[in-house]
């Protein structure tokens, strides 16, 4: 109890994270797909054709099928929600990134949807970073297991901590067209990943983040970089923004 109190006093952000997590859970629980469609329209314009494509992909079908069968919900329960998988597919179809980096793979539902969209665009390369450890209960050989064999030629899975692997990878790639965060959802780590990817993202490129309702990170990023971003928005749990200018944010 005392140790917990000391931890919170040292890091008061933990309180806002806990409150936001509770609010987010309540928000997700009452959400309808019609409301998600309305948000997609507001943020991305009419992407209904891409939504239909996303729902026809083998990965979506597999996850939806699994979600409807309580005996087989292992991957579905822990993987990114179907609503966010659909929005990510639309984002990739709309902005057509050739080179994209993401963190946080787990079973690979979101990675698979990115790759399906890249294939529909005519090609692309996705670099994904995830931890090699089994602390989350997922055996290492199942990490990214949802990514279909026929899409793997466009995919490179890098096993390691994003704190080490992300700066190395970005330096090697020099410029990227899109970045998505879905690894460790703490305010500090999320902001660190956004700000690490930012200088490598080309103007017109897209930065996105999963679970933006569970910490203040995406909001802080939006305020700090507002002079260099456009189309800043959120659909369900996925935040997105387009880089419009190569600004350096004011010092904290
Ligand atoms: C929310 S899950 C990702 C869900 C995934 N995008 C999907 O479609 O199901 C978070 C993942 O981030 C990984 N992770 C957590 N901390 C990390 C770190 N510091 N570096 C890289 N990956 C990390 C975990 O191993 C886990 O697989």
Order of helices and strands: HHHHHHHEHEEHEHEHEE
Number of strands: 7
Bound molecules: S-adenosylmethionine
Report helical residue fraction: 40-55%
Radius of gyration: 18 Å
Whole-number mean pLDDT: 92
How do the strands line up in the largest sheet? 3-2-1-4-5-7-6
Q: Structural class from helices and strands? A: alpha/beta
Tally of alpha and pi helices: 11
Report the top-level CATH class: Alpha Beta
- Strand content of the residues, in percent? 15-25%
Q: Span between N and C termini?
A: 32 Å
Q: How many domains would you count in the coordinates?
A: 1
* Broad shape: globular
- Please give the CATH architecture: 3-Layer(aba) Sandwich
Q: In terms of per-residue confidence, which ranges show pLDDT below 50 for 5 or more consecutive residues? A: none
General description of the model:
The protein is built from 11 helices and 7 strands. The chain has helices at 2-10, 13-30, 33-44, 48-56, 58-67, 74-78, 82-95, 109-121, 162-173, 187-197, 217-224, and strands at 99-103, 125-130, 155-159, 176-181, 201-209, 229-235, 238-243. Helix 4 crosses helix 7, helix 7 runs parallel beside helix 8 and helix 10 (187-197) runs parallel beside helix 11 (217-224). It is globular and about 50 Å long. The two termini are 32 Å apart. 42% of the residues are buried. The mean pLDDT is 92.
């Amino acid at each position: 109890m005392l140790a917990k109190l000391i931890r919170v006093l040292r890091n008061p952000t933990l309180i806002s994270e806990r409150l936001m997590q509770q609010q987010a859970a309540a928000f997700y629980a009452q959400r309808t797909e019609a409301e998600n469609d309305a948000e997609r329209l507001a943020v991305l314009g009419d992407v209904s054709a891409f939504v239909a494509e996303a729902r026809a992909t083998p990965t979506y079908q597999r996850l939806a099928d699994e979600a409807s069968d309580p005996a087989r919900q292992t991957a579905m329960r822990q993987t990114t929600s179907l609503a966010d998988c659909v929005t990510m597919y639309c984002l990739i179809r709309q902005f057509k990134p050739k080179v994209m980096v993401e963190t946080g793979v787990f079973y690979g539902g979101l990675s698979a949807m990115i790759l399906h969209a890249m294939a529909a665009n005519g090609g692309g390369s996705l670099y994904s970073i995830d931890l090699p450890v089994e602390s989350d209960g997922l055996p290492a050989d199942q990490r990214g297991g949802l990514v279909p064999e026929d899409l793997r030629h466009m995919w490179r899975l890098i096993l390691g901590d994003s704190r080490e692997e992300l700066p190395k990878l970005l330096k090697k790639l020099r410029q990227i067209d899109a970045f998505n965060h879905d690894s460790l959802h703490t305010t500090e780590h999320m902001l660190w990943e956004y700000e690490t990817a930012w200088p490598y993202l080309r103007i017109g490129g897209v930065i996105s983040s999963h679970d933006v309702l569970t910490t203040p990170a995406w909001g802080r990023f939006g305020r700090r970089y507002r002079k260099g971003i456009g189309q800043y928005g959120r659909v369900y749990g996925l935040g997105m923004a387009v880089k419009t200018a190569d600004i350096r944010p004011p010092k904290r």
